[in-house]
Amino acid sequence: MSATATRVLVLNSGSSSVKYQLLDMGAEPDGGSATGTRLAVGLVERIGEESSRLVHTPLAAGGETRETEGAMADHEAALKAVAAELAADGLGLDSPELAAIGHRVVHGGLKFTAPTVIDDAVLAEIERLVPVAPLHNPANITGIRTARALRPDLPQVAVFDTAFHTTMPEHAARYAIDVATADAHRIRRYGFHGTSHAYVSRKTAELLGKDPSEVNVIVLHLGNGASASAVAGGRCVDTSMGLTPLEGLVMGTRSGDIDPAVTFHLKRVAGMSTDEIDALLNKKSGLVGLCGDNDMREIRRRIDEGDERARLAFDIYIHRLKKYIGAYSAVLGKVDAVAFTAGVGENAAPVREAAVAGLEEMGLAVDATLNAVRSGEPRLISPDYARVAVAVVPTDEELEIAQQTYALVNA
Ligand code: AMP
User: Most CB atoms within 10 A, among 140, 226, 260, 274?
Assistant: First the structure.
């Protein structure tokens, strides 16, 4: 790597989309403390369709967002189009300033406990995990292959959604099912959103003026997908998602926790196929299944108009959230902070208020004035007297991936 190479391209490849950010990680020698300056951000959607769309914003140049429509047959075409957009701003992939490409990889199984430089063996291992992450890992692999073909000489790093959760003790990670069957099929709780839980728990400690090793934090990542984690002294000890991202909290379109016998019932009594049940629980459940909307803004608007279905959906969402706050308080024993993050957690004050309402005996409270403040900065929203700090901490998964990637290639 060249001494002047400080840029990291972060790629988040989905089945028909690629999100990307180019960050300059500055000159910090250890990389890990670099705060990152965003040079460009963008998104390619509808890859493989006739009307693919690329939206690119060159932040460094103060440039305006550019949109390109047209068929992009596959990820290779999409990444080439992204490379062309970056080159047009003087930020091309062939620049000697590019230090590495960091890839979000959803499932790292038990093997990948930290960011990893990708070689053929690593790629083969990520492929071996496809059976436990059939919806996500194939797209991540395509993104990696394409980027490696474009810049074979450049370090490429995989940053795994599961890695932060590999510190979970066995008693939290294992399901109470037959051990031989579980092991044969690698069935256990892996957890997801790990880069967000890592980033937010660390930032929360910073907000409290403490080292992460000194604090216990419950992180509530409430986006369209949602998960909670219990982080003790900087290490994850439990998280709400499991073998797949379906377990746990009520989400935008996913049911979260459910009696597994519901699936037998749907098969035997309702005559549904496995794929239909999968689609029902992953895509047509959660808030959208309960009230027809998965956007919390719309649900709040409907509640304000007296809509009972929206009210019930909100109440079910909050009830589950409270159960996890209670469960993770017990798991941690002592809680220093509860941190809200992601689209709902960062923006929906009524969700934060309702989630901790009635938990004063547990030391939790929200100050109405502080809770109403809108800001992109990490902040406390609990009153001074509260024993447990309640915080809003905007997540930044791309920055976390860039930091981990940059630190690794500079190690
Ligand atoms: P994410 O997956 O983190 O991008 O979060 C997306 C979700 O955040 C949306 O589906 C909305 O439910 C929620 N959201 C975004 N902005 C707001 C807002 N201003 N108020 C309430 N909810 C919001």
Answer: 226
Best probe residue, ligand 1, of 104, 294, 296, 304 (max atoms within 8 Å of C-beta): 296
Select which of 24, 89, 161, 336 is catalytic.
161
Q: Tokens for 377, please give them.
A: 């900065």
Known catalytic residue at 336: no
Within this chain, do residues 151 and 213 fall inside the same structural domain, yes or no? no
Q: How many domains does the chain have?
A: 2
Q: Which of 101, 132, 160 is the last residue of a domain?
A: 160
Determine the atom of ligand 1 nearest the C-alpha atom of 296.
Answer: 12
> Is pTM, for the whole model, over 0.70?
yes
173 falls within a domain: no
Residue 346 CA to ligand 1 center (angstroms) comes to 8
Question: Residues lining ligand 1, judged by CB closer than 6 Å?
Answer: 223-224, 252, 294-297, 342-344, 347-348
User: How many other CB atoms sit within 10 Å of the CB of residue 316?
Assistant: 16
Domain that holds residue 105: 7-160
Look at residue 109 and tell me if it is in a domain: yes
Q: Is residue 128 part of a domain?
A: yes
Check: CB of residue 387 under 8 Å from CB of residue 338: no
CB within 8 Å of 234: residues ≥ 6 apart:
201, 202, 205, 212, 213
Per-residue pLDDT tens over the stretch 52-99: 999 999 998 778 999 999 889 988 899 999 999 999 988 989 999 999
